[in-house]
Amino acid sequence: MQEPIIALEQVSKSFGHGSKAVRAAHDISFALHPGRTLALVGESGSGKTTCARLVMREYRPDSGRILFRGKDLNAIGAAGLKEYRRAVQMIFQDPFASLNPAHTVDFILRRPLALGRPHLKGRAVDETIADLLRRVELNPGAVVRKHPHELSGGQRQRINIARTLAMGAQVIVADEPTSMLDVSVRLEVLNLLNEMKRDLGVALLYITHDLATARYVAEDILVMYAGQIVEWGDVHQVLTNPQHAYTRLLLSAVPDPEIRFDDPGARLDPRAVDAIRREARLLQDRVVEIGPNHFTRQAA
Ligand SMILES: Nc1ncnc2c1ncn2[C@@H]1O[C@H](COP(=O)(O)OP(=O)(O)OP(=O)(O)O)[C@@H](O)[C@H]1O
Question: Key word Calcium present in the record (predicted)?
């Protein structure tokens, strides 16, 4: 495996103070590698978005380090941070909210190209915009003059992906990128993310509630519960042989782990959640690291 592009080392982040403090992310370590996807899974409030925002440098860690190509972000200087901001891009849940409705697709892609590839001029810019649109399987002639409201949700999410590529993204943080899309186009967007990873060597951090999509796009998985990592490892291993009660909880809500992610049965069953969550809470304090990539439960 190649060296990680980004590594979090024992990163913690809390909000609020005193008795009202929320430990949103506690002692989080993981690495993102070129050409690989790490899925971050857990129910609402488990700390996934906080981890994404830490990676995006929207939040600074209270403690711990974030490394970019092996160097501490706090020590890479202004030029290093500029490179980091270009290299690390995010795709959001709502593909409409993240596109300026007043701008055309051409404008939306031209701006990041100017920032990410300033050497391109004139016709080369037009050609690169057309190439980017083809790469995300859109017909340049049909969409380049359109505004976001004239596009479908799936097309908008493709524009968002093209925009990250225009910036020269080497890492894409995708926070529930398909949850607001029609089931029929989810697979297409996930396939596109898989292509970015395979063909361009992009590293992906894929955030989801949905284990079935995690299995579809990720090689590695990290399960979060109440701001902590409870289990981490190869996606198939973790999902076929979960060690932690909370992972079993998530899986128990998906009756068949091989179930297709577009099946409505692949959603958390709220009635099952409470009882197993109680069990998970009891076990949580006994989680120990047994190897670089695996966490499991201490023998009683
Ligand atoms: N800016 C903030 N200020 C205060 N508390 C916050 C803030 N951001 C997150 N939290 C709290 O931190 C915890 C983790 O939230 P986070 O959004 O990271 O979870 P999540 O797993 O991404 O949830 P969801 O799937 O609903 O987005 C929650 O208890 C949340 O209320």
Answer: no
Q: How many domains, the chain?
A: 1
Q: How far is the CA of 26 from the centre of ligand 1 (A)?
A: 12
Confidence of residue 286 (pLDDT cuts 50, 70, 90): very low
How far is the centre of ligand 1, averaged over its atoms, from the C-alpha of 221 (Å)? 20
Q: Across the strands, what pairs with 225?
A: 228
State the DSSP H helix or E strand holding residue 275, giving kind and residue range, or none if neither.
Answer: helix 270-284
Structure confidence at residue 184 (pLDDT): 76
Strands 203-208 and 220-225: unpaired
Average pLDDT of the chain, as a whole number: 84
Tokens at residue 26, please?
């506690």
Domain containing 213 — which CATH number?
3.40.50.300
Q: 64-100: per-residue pLDDT in tens?
A: 999 999 999 999 999 999 999 999 999 988 877 888 8
Residue 39, in any domain of the structure: yes
In ligand 1, which atom is closest to the CA atom of 53? Answer: 18
ipTM rounded to 2 decimals: 0.95
Residue 81 falls inside a structural domain: yes
Whole-prediction pTM: 0.85
Residue 49 C-alpha to ligand 1 middle, in angstroms? 7
Mutate which of 28, 50, 213 for ligand 1 pocket (most atoms within 8 A of beta carbon)? 50
pLDDT of residue 277: 58
Q: Which atom of ligand 1 is nearest to the CA of 42?
A: 21
Probe target for ligand 1 pocket from 11, 15, 223, 273, with the most ligand atoms within 8 Å of CB? 15
1: in domain: no
Q: Which domain holds residue 199?
A: 6-297
Relative to beta strand 220-225, strand 295-297 is unpaired
CA–CA dist 223, 54 (Å, integer): 17
